[in-house]
Amino acid sequence: MTTYTRAAERFALYTPEFAADPHRVYRQMRDFGPLVPVDLQPGVPATLVIGHALAVEVLHDPVRFPADPRVWQQGVDPGCPILPMVGYRANALRSAGHEHARFRASNKDALDPVLLHQLGTTVARISRQAINRFAHTGEIDLLAAFVKPVVLNSISTEMGAPPELARPIGESMAKVFEGIDAAAANELLMRSLDALIELKRARPGQDITTRLLQHRTRLSPEELAEQCVTLFGAGYEPLKNLIANTQLRMLSDQQFGGTVSSGMLTVREAMDEALFTDPPMANYCLSYPPAPVNINGYVLPAHEPVVISMAAANNDPALGDPKLRLGNRAHLAFSAGPHACPAQDASLVIARTSLEELIDALTDLHLAVPAADIRWRPGPFHRALQSLPVRFTPIAQLPEH
Question: What's the pTM value of the predicted model, to 2 decimals?
Fold first, then answer.
């Protein structure tokens, strides 16, 4: 048997060099097979699953690969910058067994009443409002001027959060994802979510937060806030990345350049390709085996993180030629198994609608810098742009209703 996590060579997932070209590193990793020794942070070892078949097996096996990190966490420095991303939380993402089922039910029941058609109408209006703020300029950072406000306003509308609470939630979650002042950012995040819950307790509405408050599982105040971490905070960053990564692909990839706006390819097809190639969460879906696991001829140690590389698994050579997958949606970008994202449909509506509104309004949108100069934010988990500078011909104000 082989124990990968004790190998002398580990791949560092937290460096700017990895963020600059992760696919080159994934190709190097394949020499190790489908399981690869990595460091999530200096001194924080893990096993990265890069084979598609093995990733699917792990994601569908919550007994050998539960998502509860509490035993592992006992040996981790409380100041570890990625701890808010991987440590225990009383929510569906970081729990197992009956606890997970309880939290999952509350999340699903809070999301189910969201009307996707109505959500699309709301996102279209929010998108046009954002475009009108920069329509006269001709040059902007699309990530800052369009993607961030559209995603934040769309999610906060569904959560019932006013702008004065939505802004700190979005800003703090971005820092948590990147490991920048993560402990302080997490504290601000939880304070803001607590304030949102108290607001909805006093003034309930037709929104996700109110439905969580009223759910039959009778979540505690801490549990309520932690469900909002996944439904609001964790939804914000990946959705931003999905929209920005798709837009970059449409502006820089010859397969898509000009073809979406001309109607030859749909926005959804461009999104699917981005979800395969650069999924917004590239390496995540952590589990923590409670005992040594013999899988595929390799032994993984107990209580050490096992991380699914959605990006590497999606591009596993065993899946065949990526050029032939147009229209294929069998990617792992939204995870799979009992921890699959419950907000997938709503996320796709927000992403697709916002991109369609942008393309319809700015028909000659193009990158303001060479594609090679686009920079990515470091971090072991996300695939996130630092900025997306674009140019376009200024336009008149759009009708917003």
Answer: 0.93
Output the 3-class SS for 228-287.
HHHHHHHHHHHHHHHHHHHHHHHHHCCCCCCCCCCCCCCHHHHHHHHHHHCCCECEEEEE
DSSP secondary structure, 25-56, as one string: HHHHHGGG-SEEEEEEETTEEEEEE--HHHHH
Rounded to whole angstroms, the Cα distance separating 150 from 354 reads 7
Q: Contact at 8 Å (CB) between 34 and 2? A: no
CB 110 within 8 Å of CB 215: yes
CA distance 6 to 249: 37
Give Cα 39 distance to the centre of its chain. 20
Q: Residue 319, Cα to own-chain centre: how many angstroms?
A: 23
**Which residue type sits at 41?**
Q
Amino acid at 188: L
What whole-number distance in Å separates Cα of residue 205 and Cα of residue 95?
A: 28
What b-and-e string marks burial along 100-128, b requiring 16 or more CB atoms within 10 Å of the CB? bebbbebbebbbeebeeeebbebbbbbbb
Per-residue pLDDT tens, the chain, 401 aa: give them.
444 444 458 999 999 999 999 999 999 999 989 999 999 999 999 999 999 999 999 999 999 999 999 999 999 999 999 999 999 999 999 999 999 999 999 999 999 999 999 999 999 999 999 999 999 999 999 999 999 999 999 999 999 999 999 999 989 988 888 888 889 999 999 999 999 999 999 999 999 999 999 999 999 999 999 999 999 877 899 999 999 999 999 998 765 655 555 556 789 989 999 999 999 999 999 999 999 999 988 899 999 999 999 999 999 999 877 766 666 677 899 999 999 999 999 999 999 999 999 999 999 999 999 999 999 999 999 999 999 999 999 999 999 87
Domains of the chain: 4-391 (1.10.630.10)
Amino acid at 115: L
Contact 356, 267 (CB under 8 A): yes
H or E stretch covering 133: helix 116-134
Rounded to the nearest 5°, which phi and psi values hold at 97?
60, -140
What the block records as the tokens of 5 is: 């996590």
Distances in Å between the alpha carbon of 369 and those of 139, 140, 344, 351, 364?
A: 11, 12, 32, 24, 15
